[in-house]
User: Which sequence fits this backbone?
């Protein structure tokens, strides 16, 4: 659409003069944005890739030493890295799945008219709006092994658990405890995206289906879900990319202990704590690749569906 | 008769689900508020009290008497507001060019910006760290304002350009006929018309900057420059039994309140902005 714009204009001198002026103005207006984007995103990105070929340290005056692909071979041979990848994928798949299911339920409920609906929508925005660092602390206190409200509730009020659990200091439960916090925090976002999609479905389709005798369950599968498809896809992609780079939650609640080290926490640790600029940047590039793989996976499955 | 009874059960079930959702969403906040008003002596006892007995505001007094916490609040406000203002000023120009003007390379720039809204912040952490050091702004608010541009600016440009695009097509032509220069057309006619868009994107950028943790943790080193999320995260630096949970919860409540107010006032706009950013993408 951009390439045809200028020549497509009438060839009168005054107009083409105006088109040229418009183009000059556009470039002028874009300069500040492009400078910032190149300065704080593109240059750092290329620099990150460049550094991966060196043994470089932060805060050291020692000259960088070219090491070829050594950082990459070291990373690929690192059990720690593959564990972080596995933890991140477990975390991502579980939280995105529960967010989608719960988000769908909430969107369906909030989509029907009832008194207090506006209030409900506002309440839904709050978990999304507060800093993850703060919700992590709030949940950490609820998860407390001795004085936490969750342990009290599940051992005393509704005694499902035989004994109190150290939710986030136990290799069996820690990552699922983190998933629960992420689900709590981002389900509202998912629900709002799905709600926006739901409100675009015309009501008379449902009326027609009711006349034909289709019950609610059938209507959901034959009308709601197909019509929500693009909203679901967008929400899934957004949330997956977000979950794959989870950092705040893990850093605050477990610092990566108890089988919760994710790609991002491992990356920050190596870069900043261990000051390994070269190796840490290699992890950054690897995270980029993993995220890109997920994007490709989503896009190919969607396009495959489209052709059928 | 039977149909009516079925409706009653359906209504009851519906309200039960609504209440469960409300409790699920709001209980953690209730718990933070309740804990923040519970005296420390009662906080560390079992069984847990679900309503604070002898409520006290001492945790709030403690945190507001803590100069580091006050400083962190101020730092967060300075960083978030400056980030928003700069992104809106720079972004409005860029968005206008992308949303309204014809020029070669437009779609390349547009898609580059769009792809950057999904950019993982962690991927450039090391390079930004060296850059921040080299510029001599490590451990200053400038480091955060500069690096926050990586996520606020592309987002601002993307959402604002959609707002510009949605305005009627012949606005510029009418202005040109009246003899306005392109620049006058931009800032006297189109910019005021996108005021709602500026508010929405500004809010979302504010929330993004106010909540940011990774860069704030990495590019600051001491209490003078820390922002609130980092300050609250580092409250727990001591040993396990010394963690001042009442104070942490009080701080969490204090930081959450401005966001709750923003959400209450601008609910509609926030939802519009979020869904515009996502669904139109």
Assistant:
């Amino acid at each position: 659409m951009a390439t045809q714009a200028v020549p497509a204009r009438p060839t009168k001198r005054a107009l083409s003069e105006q088109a040229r002026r418009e183009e000059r103005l556009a470039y002028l207006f874009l300069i500040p944005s492009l400078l910032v984007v190149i300065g704080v995103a593109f240059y750092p990105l290329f620099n990150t890739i460049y550094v991966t070929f060196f043994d470089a340290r932060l805060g050291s005056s020692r000259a960088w030493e070219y090491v070829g692909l050594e950082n990459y071979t070291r990373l690929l041979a690192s059990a720690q890295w593959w564990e972080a990848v596995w933890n991140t994928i477990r975390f991502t798949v579980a939280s995105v799945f529960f967010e989608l299911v719960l988000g769908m339920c909430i969107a369906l409920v909030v989509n029907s008219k009832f008194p207090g609906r506006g209030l409900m929508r506002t309440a839904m925005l709050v978990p999304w709006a507060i800093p993850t660092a703060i919700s992590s602390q709030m949940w950490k206190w609820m998860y407390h092994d001795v004085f936490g409200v969750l342990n009290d509730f599940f051992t005393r009020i509704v005694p499902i658990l035989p004994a109190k659990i150290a939710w986030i200091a136990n290799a069996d439960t820690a990552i699922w405890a983190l998933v629960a916090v992420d689900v709590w925090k981002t389900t509202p976002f998912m629900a709002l995206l799905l709600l926006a999609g739901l409100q675009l479905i015309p009501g008379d389709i449902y009326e027609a289906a009711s006349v034909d005798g289709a019950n609610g369950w059938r209507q959901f599968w034959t009308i709601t879900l197909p019509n929500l498809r693009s909203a679901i896809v967008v929400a899934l992609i957004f949330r997956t990319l977000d979950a794959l780079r989870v950092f705040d939650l893990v850093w605050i609640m477990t610092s990566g202990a108890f089988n919760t080290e994710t790609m991002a926490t491992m990356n920050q640790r190596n870069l900043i704590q261990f000051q390994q600029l070269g190796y840490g940047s290699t992890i950054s590039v690897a995270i980029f690749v993993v995220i890109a793989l997920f994007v490709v996976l989503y896009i190919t499955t969607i396009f495959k569906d489209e052709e059928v | 008769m039977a149909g009516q009874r079925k409706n009653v059960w359906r209504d009851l079930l519906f309200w039960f689900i609504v209440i469960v959702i409300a409790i699920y969403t709001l209980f953690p906040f209730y718990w933070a508020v309740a804990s923040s008003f519970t005296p420390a002596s009662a906080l560390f006892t079992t069984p847990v009290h679900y309503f604070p007995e002898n409520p006290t505001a001492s945790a709030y007094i403690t945190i507001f008497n803590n100069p580091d916490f006050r400083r962190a609040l101020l730092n967060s406000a300075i960083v978030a507001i400056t980030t928003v203002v700069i992104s809106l000023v720079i972004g409005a120009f860029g968005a206008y060019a992308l949303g309204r003007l014809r020029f070669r390379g437009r779609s390349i720039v547009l898609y580059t910006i769009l792809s950057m809204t999904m950019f993982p912040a962690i991927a450039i952490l090391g390079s930004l760290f060296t850059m921040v050091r080299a510029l001599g702004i490590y451990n200053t608010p400038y480091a955060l304002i500069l690096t926050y541009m990586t996520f606020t600016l592309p987002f601002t440009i993307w959402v604002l350009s959609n707002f510009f695009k949605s305005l009627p097509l012949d606005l510029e032509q009418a202005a040109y006929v009246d003899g306005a220069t392109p620049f006058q057309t931009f800032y006297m006619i189109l910019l005021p018309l996108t005021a709602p868009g500026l508010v929405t994107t500004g809010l979302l950028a504010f929330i993004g900057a106010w909540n940011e943790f990774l860069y704030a943790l990495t590019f600051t080193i001491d209490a003078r420059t820390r922002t609130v999320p980092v300050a609250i995260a580092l409250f727990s630096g001591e040993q396990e039994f010394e963690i001042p949970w009442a104070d942490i919860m009080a701080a969490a409540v204090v930081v959450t309140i401005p966001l709750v107010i923003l959400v209450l006032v601008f609910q509609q706009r926030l939802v519009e902005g979020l869904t515009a950013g996502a669904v139109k993408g």
Notes: Confidence is low (pLDDT under 50) at residues 1-10 of chain A. Chain A has two domains: 5-45, 70-307. Chain A is about 75% helix and 0% strand. Residues 5-45 of chain A form one domain.
